[in-house]
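hi! just following up on the protien thing from before. the input was this:
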Amino acid sequence: MKLDFKNFSQILNYWAIETPEKIFVTNVVSNKSYSYENFDRLVNSTARFLKKHGVGRGDIVSLCLRNSLEFLVAYFATIRLGAIINPIPISVADKELAANLDFSKPKLSLLEVPSTKIAKRHKIFSVKFQGKGAFLKILKNFSDKKLSISLDEDKPVCLYYSSGTTAKPKGIIFSHRGIINIISATCRWFGHNSNSRHLAILPMAHTSVMHYSVLPVLYVGGSFVFAENFIKIRKDFWRIIRDYKVNYVQTVPTIILMILSITYFNYQRSRLILPYIACGSAPLPEKNKKLFEKKFGLRLANLYGLSEAGHLASDYPFEKGQKPGSIGRPLDIVDLKVFDDQGREAPVGQTGEIAVKTPGFFLGYHKDKKLYESSFKNGYFCTGDLAWKDNSSILYYVGRKKDLIIKGGVNISPNLIDEVLVKHPAVAEASSVGKPDELFGEVAKSFVVLKFGRLVSQKELFDYCRRELGEFKSPSEIKFIKEIPKTASGKILRRKLK
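and the predicted 3d structure came back as:
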């Protein structure tokens, strides 16, 4: 039966009535679970709490909390009020948090550890998780009866800051309709249904885990379990997947590397119902994909999406004709093209910029209509990502347009160099950037993280790259570092390396 859902407040209330006793969410650390009915009642109480603090239709509520039940009820209560939820990663520094709040000017901010400076400029509620004044205890003072508030599906519901690698994050606004379109298409693509049980380990404040796990599970009436982060459950990762009968988990390349370092896989593959693991947010080196699949007997799915449009394409592991190293095909609601520099569709095999049309689009950039309008070419949103298509229309990611190294007028993808470097047996991670050069304009400089206990000289890596890439495309400089800087969602911060 196809359900004509208009917003996620309606969806939550629907399942609370249809399957009231079914478990919706479980914290794997505390092992506390909440049924659809109980969670829906908590959301009602939270909505009344927010209303008492002056939040109404169209107001912005900023949320900077760890992965928690408190985060979830505040997220959905804001939606239920007709307000706009503005999630901010808990990892941000005070300076960035202050800048974000100054930019969005929320009616109320729910913060875990507010600074005195922020508290002086904004209306803040400090969320406690335990003890006297704990948020969930405060909610007991509010009625759990639903507020009757109609929601316009074309009005804003979310304000996300881009998790990209630019110095100035963009405020991305979604409507109820746009979010519903994204999530329904994602559920069709992956075949999610009421039996879906997801594990959420990425930050809830990013679109990734919300758009691939939390909202899809709610859309189909499934269940999900969550942890504060992967580090907290690293040793128990496979046990959790087995014990909670998880059949979908969303990761990033950094987590795949961490899982590979778990030397003992102490649960037989036959005892898991997990068919594959999904990986997105940043390019996954093909070497690590193959290592993972060989070690654990589980396939990996490369996912491609944007903060502005959600899930756009993936190489679903069980699709006929699936090709390693690709990011697969676009979803059924996505019209995806590869444009050349003149805005024309590039021929097969030629690298160009990914451009998309989809009813899952964002409404616009917060307070920046000019940026929104300049992001389109011939009616397509230009992503800034480079890729090429093969004869089967399967997509292969090359890298970010702005990250290209232009050496003597020749474009060199840093991802090409990185892929070669991580194939060396001593290299765990690598990231390359353009370095100014008087003769060529730019040359490649590579930053390398070595595997634990492994040693290799710069000369050996230089010689290795020249054999694999040739002299011209090889890095002119290699620097060993302990860690490559990344965003909380796993994207490499090349600007910091520069």
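The chain has two domains: 8-389, 404-497.
The longest strand covers residues 427-437.
cheers
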